[in-house]
């Protein structure tokens, strides 16, 4: 025997509610991907303290380091190694492919340097605060820098840094799914007799 139409609508309504809740939870947990130095990449002559101030970093986010393999490397280090630029101890991870992906797995301060020929002492280093949960990539107060912090971008537009590159934010497919579920929910409510 088939369920009455009103009961079928209740099942469907419950199903849509679960989808909406799932969409809200999943959409809030998305990760961001950041290219260190934006279009300039990982190289000498860039103030990475200023670059890091352009973004909020969160667990699950990914840093991409792009550089000429024979000229640079990336070390994740302790704060004391970061400050001294002496990598004889305090190296947590080392990367040297020229296109390294570093997933930020822990909510803590992360420190990165280039250990090639005085590059760290020349400024090829930065530290970032990584928080728990998801962010929208908006500006924050990251690693200390002697330079003035650039003005924050508008929340509705792209984030633009000093060299003109930008990172456009989008809700992506999960956002569209959430929107569809909300519209379907509203239409379903209209079906119920008043």
Automatic annotation (TrEMBL):
Keywords: Signal. Residues 132-169 are annotated as: Disordered. InterPro entries: Cupredoxin (IPR008972), Phytocyanin-like (IPR039391), Phytocyanin_dom (IPR003245). One of its GO terms (molecular function) is electron transfer activity. CDD domains: Phytocyanin. Residues 1-31 form the signal peptide. It comes from the Eukaryota. The keyword Manganese does not apply. PANTHER family: BLUE COPPER PROTEIN, OS09G0541100 PROTEIN. This is Phytocyanin domain-containing protein. One of its GO terms (cellular component) is plasma membrane.
